[in-house]
Write a structure and sequence with these properties.
The structure is a homodimer. Chain A is an alpha+beta fold. Chain A has 3 domains: 3-417, Creatine Kinase, Chain A, domain 2 (2-Layer Sandwich); 503-568, 2-Layer Sandwich (Dna Ligase, domain 1); 573-746, 2-Layer Sandwich (D-amino Acid Aminotransferase, Chain A, domain 1), CATH 3.30.470.20. Helices cover 38% and strands 16% of the residues of chain A. In chain A, the strands form 6 sheets. In chain A, strands 1, 2, 3, 4, 5, 6 and 7 form a 7-stranded antiparallel β-sheet that branches. In chain A, α3 crosses α16 (430-441), α14 (387-397) crosses α15 (400-417) and α16 packs across α26. Chain A starts with a helix and ends with a helix. The mean pLDDT of chain A is 93. Chains A and B meet through β10, α17 and α18 of A and β10, α18 and α19 of B.
């Protein structure tokens, strides 16, 4: 088949860059000094051998981070970042991830390396066999496995552009086999640029077998490799399968998965699946951890690998394919064992390949890869710019171990800096980020169905749940949410069930409203638009109102909605009760934006100081919002006889807002443990009356010491069907309530049963 | 107590007109000639003795229409109108309601009057006793019972304005007792104006006891009255109860409810409840059917009765209360038996009372009742303007029976004119009107929680269901509706479940979309905004598109939404499948607005003719919309080489729109029975995959003869969580599918069990 011609076909070109990616990354847990952790795998991460995102590899300290399959490089890194965040913040705060492929200093006695304490006996036994065959030390080497699949549309377009193969699956197998053989032949190219295991730490080698620094210990015979007898043919899928089967039969491999080739053909869970399914994707296994990248690999590397694989599909291969592969092994061994600062002996070939790749990009109308090519040429000219070169040079100043420890610390710090965020998804709503964090920790698969819309698909085995905005789920029925969306209907139903709600009337015209003036004139009351939120168009009259003020308020409210409510104003403190499945899980007090004087600083200075809290930010992407210093705040100060440069007395509280919304800089204070049970029961019963399972219900309580059964002890203001959760998880003061985890356990009760 | 002073109290005034109303109205079923119907009570009306809206009174032909309690006169008439519509359209189309209190001609033999065939044996036995006591003929007299309750706020304000009574319930009892005694004393006033049973038909009286026409046979001793021995004291609640108990004990009444006083004190289901609950409301029973009003009573009458009762509360009563009441009986007898065209001998008193009522309105700052007072004075001056007078005069021209038959026919015609509407609620969405019709028929209590929002509370015994917009219910879960709201998410989920959906991409920017031009350029495709509806911003390219046209379409779509979808265009016909609880209940084909030529008329004339169909109207308040003749239609015609005044050939179909929406004049054609089961299964399974119970799902099918399992046989376009129902109930062509009834039976499965 002439892939050169096929790839340049106009009907193929559109799909050239369609692909699917996945990364598995191993990293050891170490303490803050860079010593291998002595602790167990974190208990907060569900300890399932089949955790989709976080597993243990050979040893108890060796974490394996697994991304889902993604269709863009961007999504791949989002997932990788998020899983890192979960891993970091699930570990002991005094532990970090080792950034190198070569492990930190190992215990003197090999048997002190703790094999992963897995659930499944088979899994433990397999590791014991590995331990006996290769020794524990070699198993401690870590790396990246890069899973790559050409887009289905691309493979189909290529299939249509040829006539040699009639069977689609067979065609696909041939395509991947070509890429695989070429990859094995040319993989020295990857080793040169991205090899990153130049030196080992003490106790890694029992003897002095490797004294000189190299480009990649891991990529060489000194690394993670089968014995020389293990050879497999890539000439056809049949040979590949039978060679592997024969190796297992002959006892050279304990299982097929013990085959450590630099590339694996994947068709399913088992090698034998290849027979039925053909090759679905390939797994590149020879990628060292990139110490300079927080997640062990850069997007440039992924971009490079993708383009490289396309190039290998395009590039002619040698005639004798097994030999062609074998030659590649020897080339790679040479490059892997070159000194990290030495120019490679394949420099001419490398240059030629870069030229060809550049030409390919041009011929196929691919997007511009200029920075990549500049970088490759720089690294080729100057070996100290390769990963191995950089790491080696850095290490010369102190030691490789010290460099690695410093890098770890930096990564550790970043992961804890904004503990409420989930890296990779910081554009999403905070509650959704926290929920996703918990889902990953619990081993629940997440698919983002619509990112802008905060729409998730969660999956645990065969159990699927859809979640929008963190807590809009299948557990609530539709009409109940519509009830909550309509203030009048909510009030009617609560009233019919015997709860106290503000008395009031709904009006459709200003005239109607005026006719009812006398019903409210002498009482405390509120005028508000029926459906809008956030306090817009609301007027409060705490001691009744003159008719002209009433009229003004009505007119204002009608600007926001075509229906206006005039309601009894209830005195007391407003509390937000978060109710889930008939239980109050959190009660929050919200206090308007304020500062506390110290007798020295001006109000402006106090605000600036208070805003320094990393919990404060903008646009609901932090648990609290910064306090503004705009016209509204100025007016509010003026009303109290203050200005921005006034200096409040020590311990004096100055309010900058009338409303208590968190969105305008208010403080959130958890009072769950302070609210008496009878009020909690009111909240639970009221939510049940609305037929709701997940609800934020707002109660006005004049005095929590007074029993809820007393006349007018409380009033229910409103019920919310998508209540904010983050403000309970990260309150300004008081205990954190991990509501997102409750939501997950409510959706997946099987988590608690196992 | 000085009610005159109390009522004028400023704190009372605001609430003076707060009240609650209810009407029970009896009417006989007659055939189109005005003869008593020989058929049974309609089977389509649930045959429960405790039907909340529609029952039978004494005989099988005597329907009793019962409104719910309402807080405005407007709502009262809305309910009354709706119940009438249901009654009319549940009866045989050749039956109507007799508009008079006096029954139509009765059978010669009294025993031929069929006693109501009720479920409950007790209920039947009670009627047999009445039959023995009073004869069947008297029981055939019909009338209106008007239930009236002073607003709770008013009673409370009055209570606070006095100091004589410390107990609220006792105070309330005294208040109602005063009104009751005064009503009994002055009820001749009501009889004069609104008495409306001047003459009887043949066979009503066995002898010639009453030869002369009167104002109200029903209101006199010849009407529906107990024997003279039945006397009850209204001096206190205790006396009232004990008198009634004694009458039953002495066998003068078979049960308390046999007491036919012109006013009844109501405290609950039984008279004895009065002891515990006090008086909750009063029931005025002396109101004759107003023959000139479609619903048997006018809103002016209700307004009058309300004001009259307020006046009676205000007006001093006589000292000896039992005597005061007895005097009233004799005054009423006089007025009832006066000739309908004679001036009343109480004219002076009547005039004085109108003066007093007018003064009261002024003193209490009540709204203007000018028209009522003018009318009362007119009737007082000219007896031929009273109801009895009018009916008598009309009857003189032919006969009372003929007049009544003509009135019946007019009412009958009106009730069938727009059979899809529910009178009283024609401002609501059509599907909601039809659903309410069915609910009333099934004996489900309806409360409108929010009229503008189409929000209903339905209740059957203790079972409550809330419904918004006809089919948004508790049966669907929240997140499933959110899935359907998001086209991308819907498609993803359907695709993951193996259904064919149009392939496509979502874009957030014009640039993104342009980059993907080549993916679509040569195929049929659609460009559309992600969330808007009704075809706005959509461009269809049936054979691919040039890049500049693609760009135009993209730009157009981005004007409507910040996300744009570009999707494969599927060829075929679009069908709407209505799925309820895993069953396809209806399939509809929608055809763009069109006319069929006759070789004579112009397109404009054909449109005007087609629009004459009473099923066509505006704003979704009719099953079909009128075809417009606006710019869009003109453009569409131009594209086909036509103008408005072109004359299409005979049987030629000319389309006036591209889109098939019913809202733009399209035709709806029921094809439920034509669609093969395998396609119905696709619809059911797809809806199940979305986790939905009530759904309108749109399938494109190229050829229904081709099995659904064939490649590309169908495609799913979208799923709707609030699918229109009326278009299936009243299709342009094909069988009607009463989906609203299915919804009710789905919400209340117990309806089918009993």
């Amino acid at each position: 088949m002439d892939f050169k011609k096929m790839l340049a076909n106009d009907r193929v070109k559109s799909y050239l860059l369609k692909a699917r990616y996945g990364i598995e990354k191993e990293s050891h847990r170490v303490d803050l000094s860079g010593n291998l952790a002595k602790t167990d795998h974190p208990k907060s991460i569900t300890l399932k051998d089949d955790h989709p995102y976080i597993q243990r590899d050979f040893s108890e300290t060796q974490m394996e981070l697994i991304t889902p399959v993604t269709e863009t490089v961007e999504d791949l890194f989002h997932s990788l970042a998020a899983i890192h965040d979960v891993v970091y913040r699930s570990m002991d705060e005094n532990e970090m991830l080792w950034p190198l492929s070569m492990p930190p200093q190992l215990p003197e006695k090999e048997e002190e390396i703790v094999i992963a304490k897995l659930e499944n006996v088979e899994n433990v036994r397999y590791r014991q066999i590995l331990s006996q065959t290769y020794g524990n030390r070699k198993q401690m080497v870590s790396g990246i496995h890069f899973n790559f699949e050409f887009g289905e549309e691309l493979v189909q377009a290529l299939f249509r552009a040829q006539s040699e193969f009639k069977d689609y699956q067979q065609f696909k197998v041939e395509m991947y086999l070509k890429v695989t053989r070429n990859y094995l032949h040319y993989r020295w190219f990857v080793t040169y640029f991205y090899g990153a295991s130049p030196q080992s730490e003490k106790n890694f080698f029992e003897d002095d077998s490797l004294n000189e620094p190299v480009r990649s210990i891991r990529g060489s015979k000194y690394g993670y490799a089968n014995s020389d007898d293990v050879q497999v043919s890539y000439s056809s899928i049949r040979n590949y399968i039978s060679d592997l089967a024969s190796l297992v039969q002959r006892g050279l491999l304990s299982e097929e998965k013990e085959f450590y080739g630099p590339i694996r053909l994947r068709g399913g869970h088992h090698v034998s699946d290849l027979k039925d399914h053909g090759i679905q994707y390939i797994e590149l296994r020879n990628i060292d951890l990139n110490p300079f990248e927080r997640y062990g690999i850069s997007d440039e590397q992924v971009e490079f690998l993708h383009l490289f694989l396309l190039y290998l599909l395009w590039k002619d291969e040698g005639d004798h394919c097994d030999e062609w592969v074998k030659l590649g092994d020897s080339y790679n061994e040479i490059v892997a064992l070159e000194h990290p600062l030495a120019r490679t002996q394949f420099e001419v070939d490398a240059n030629k390949m870069i030229d060809e790749m550049e030409k390919l990009v041009e011929t196929l109308d691919l997007p511009v890869y200029d920075r990549l090519f500049v970088h490759l040429r720089e690294m080729l000219m100057d070996p100290s710019k390769t990963l191995a070169g950089r790491l080696y040079k850095e290490s010369e100043k102190s030691s490789q171990s010290q460099v690695a420890t410093l890098i770890s610390k930096e990564n550790h710090k970043k992961s804890w800096e904004k503990p409420y965020q989930l890296a990779g998804f910081t554009d999403m709503e905070l509650s959704t980020q926290i929920l996703m964090f918990d889902a990953i920790q619990q081993g629940i698969q997440i698919e983002i169905l619509d990112r802008q819309d905060q729409f998730l698909k969660l999956k645990l085995k065969d159990h699927v749940e859809y979640v929008k905005n963190g807590n809009m789920t299948s557990k609530d029925n539709y009409v109940s949410t519509l009830i909550m969306e309509n203030k009048t209907v909510t009030k009617k139903i609560l009233h019919q069930h015997g709860f106290r709600v503000p008395k009031g009337e709904e009006f459709q015209t200003v005239e109607q409203a005026i006719r009812s003036y006398h019903l409210f004139s002498s009482k405390p009351f509120v005028v508000k638009p029926k459906t809008t939120n956030y306090g817009i168009g609301i007027s409060i009259f705490k001691d009744g109102a003159k008719e002209e003020d009433y009229l003004k308020a009505i007119t204002l409210a009608f600007k926001e909605d075509h229906s206006v409510l005039v309601e009894e104003f209830m005195k007391g403190t407003e509390y937000r009760f978060f109710v889930l499945n008939d239980q109050v899980l959190a009660v929050l007090l919200r206090i308007p934006a304020n500062v506390k004087g110290d007798g020295k600083q001006t109000i402006e200075e106090l605000v600036i100081n208070k805003n320094r809290d990393p919990l404060r930010g903008r646009d609901h992407r932090t648990p609290l919002e910064t306090i503004q210093l705009s016209e509204l705040e100025n007016l509010m100060l003026k009303g109290q006889g203050y200005q921005m440069d006034s200096i409040p007395e020590k311990d004096e509280i100055v309010y900058l807002r009338e409303n208590s919304n968190i969105s305008t800089g208010g403080d959130s204070i958890d009072v769950t443990d302070l609210i008496p049970d009878d009020y909690k029961k009111i909240a639970v019963d009221a939510v049940a009356a609305l037929g709701v399972k997940i609800c934020g219900i707002d109660l006005i309580i004049e005095d929590t010491e007074v029993p809820a059964a007393h006349k007018n002890a409380y009033g229910i203001i409103e019920a919310n069907f998508n209540p904010s959760m983050y403000m309970h998880v990260y309150p300004y003061k008081g205990k954190s309530r991990r509501l997102t985890m409750h939501i997950i356990q409510y959706l997946f009760p099987e988590l608690l049963q196992s």
